[in-house]
Amino acid sequence: MRSLRELAIDLNFIGRGGPQMRAIAGKQFKNWIGDAAVLGLWEVIRKYGYFREQFRQTLNEIKEGKPDAVVLIDYPGFNLRLARALRKQSPRQKLIYYISPQVWAWNRGRIKKMARLLDLMLCIFPFEADLYNKSGLRTVFVGHPMIERLRAQKIDIERDPDLIGLFPGSRMREARKIFPVMLETVQQLQKHNRNLRFEVAAASGELAREIKGMFDGCLQDRQVIQIKVGETAALMQRALAGIVASGSATLEAAYCRLPFVLIYKVAWPTYLAARLVVSIKYLGMPNVLADREVVPEFIQHQANSDAIVKAMRRLMEDADARARTVAEFDEIIRKLGGSGASEKAAQAIVEEIGGT
To answer: What's the pTM value of the predicted model, to 2 decimals?
Structure first.
């Protein structure tokens, strides 16, 4: 949005997203991220009425606002349905999708359907452009916006040989599932090395309070674990190794060259439903991009402290294993392109609008 403003100063934005988007767009832009950021099948079903009403409101806002283009950002459960409804409501409406839904992981058959709905796809992974272009959907690989953000947060610091980073995810629900496993792992790792210290990256003060409540009373020395709010990138550059919940943080850790293991746990109904549709070998994006297990993955019932401790000790104590992992990370990050993803995406959007 900032890059769009720089290219076309008189642009106006309507829509919905988070507080940073609203700060750029103005009061007419709805901040719904607190209510819309749900995880898991059951939570979506529980809030079905809310999403149905938001869907209706969004359609009306677009119909009344008559924007030159609608940019759908990620969030496929909502946005792919919205694209279908918009195509019926306004057949000539420009529909652009930025940050492709990962249909290559769970339903490649939807790519052809998306090609009939969308005018332009802007993707952040290079292999996605090949998949979409083959379907006839005009696609531009713009690079990953993470690169420019993390480049700005780079610090010159040596790694602390006694510091382990814990990254339980940004959502409360996933942290409640994942952090107890991390806590068991902490207790076991301490038995092997009493000098170890642990820092938890919390995305918000609310999440930090929730995490603190999980380990209060179950650690003899509460100073062993400290919680840091808003310091994810710095911790990834200071720690010797990490335990990271599956998600965007796995690519961030790879960029920061932090050797880590990946863990993930969700409610069993959600996990079983996902198993029915997900068709890829790996969950973590570093492994998907490398097409092999660069990062050990511990998913659902495999996410137990014994297995995680074994993998962590290898990363902590085997210098050759660490060096190989970091070299693999460098190759993975090179595939994501350099900085300037936002500028490239904005330029593609402006060109699409200009072609109307």
So the answer is: 0.81
